[in-house]
Amino acid sequence: MDKIHNGLVAALDVGSSKVCCFIAKVETDQRPRIVGIGQQESRGLKAGAVVDMEELETSILNAVHAAEQMAGETIDRVVVNLSGGYPASSSVGVEVSINGHEVGDADLRRALEYGQELQTTNGHAEPGRQLIHSIPTEYSIDGSRGIRDPRGMHGEQLGVHMHIITAAAGAVRNLATCIRRCHLDIAGFVVSPYAAGLSALVEDEMNLGVTVIDLGGGTTTIAVFFEGNVIYTDVVPIGGLHVTNDIARGLSTPLVHAERMKTLYGHALAASADDREVIDVPQVGEDAQNATQQVPRSLLVGIIQPRLEETFELVRSRLEASGFDKIAGRRVVLTGGGSQLSGIGDLAGLILDKQVRIGRPLRVAGLAEATAGAAYATCAGLLLYAIASDIAVPLDVPQQVKEPGNLMGRMGHWFREHF
Fold first, then answer.
1. Is the pLDDT of residue 374 over 60?
2. Quick one: which of 113, 165, 325, 382 could link to 319 by a disulfide (CB 3.0–4.6 Å)?
3. Cα(259)–Cα(240) distance, rounded to whole angstroms?
4. What is the Cβ-side half-sphere exposure of residue 353, based on CA atoms within 13 angstroms?
5. CB 236 within 8 A of CB 223
6. Residue 183: closest CA among 15, 390, 12
7. Please, is 252 exposed, middle or buried when counting C-beta atoms within 10 Å of its C-beta (0-12, 13-18, 19+)?
8. DSSP string, 100-126
9. At what angle do helices 377-392 and 192-200 cross, to 10 degrees?
């Protein structure tokens, strides 16, 4: 199924805190220009998993309808992010015989399909897991490695190294059911940090090594990029909503006020001036306007900082255990709504011992200032994935192997020309 339909491409970011829909027109130079944006509070999703199908369906319908109204268009298919289902990475390498002839598209398709067969038969995929991505990260011919595009070359054996990403099949099916109930076809799933990286990273970061940390409402997802490919992904089941819940419990305040205080007064690192600044905290169950408690800002920061430290320490331990920490280099890009908290880049840098910046959508035109921040990097990246994967491979390649692998390598020329 083609991801681009009648010159339009649509992305649906279904998160634990918000549901966002972008509709873009693909211009003649293949650049996406946003023509419709819809956003709704997410209900029915917790930590990336569906907990109430009817509420989530309503959130999706409202977000898509708002985007369609703004665009003056009707969409029937979307590219969707995936942050739940515990996405997991594995790698597989295969070789196929090419008998000395020139490598063509059919040879690539045969190697990729064989890699997927091994992925399901040699223990790389556990029962109950669904394949989300099979991304070719490196090719080889007769043992000569490091080839980015082998088409046109000659040899006896064609090898391909693939990055496999799977997720819990039940979680994927539940999300797909909610979307299809909204009369939308799913053109493809993309794990959230992969999509965020496509929109927020510059070419040198992708090539030299970088870690993307997408701080969502219910989960924190991780992706490592190297030599133009995503080579590792993982998820930590902690997000911004956990910080909000900690504030609500610690200060005995309603969740809506806890979120407001986090946004207005929250900081990831304590400062000496926090003790001198006092904030008003509305109390749970109190109706009177003056039923508030005054607390120093240091108390609020003292609740926020430990949870964030825990999150980044878990990210660090996952990276170290995976063996990709050194490959990722010393660069970290934070995306997602949680990355907008003041001081979070400094805290991440201290715990991860890396250089940190906040990532924003770089390659999508037509975004207003309010929707051009780190919270919208994933949704913008879904549009880029849809366009890139449609041009990256021959149209006769089966959908399950149509991956925009090596976006900044194999398709680097296209990105440099258009972006």
1. yes
2. 325
3. 9
4. 6
5. no
6. 12
7. middle
8. TSBP-HHHHHHHHHHHHHHHHHSSSS-
9. 90
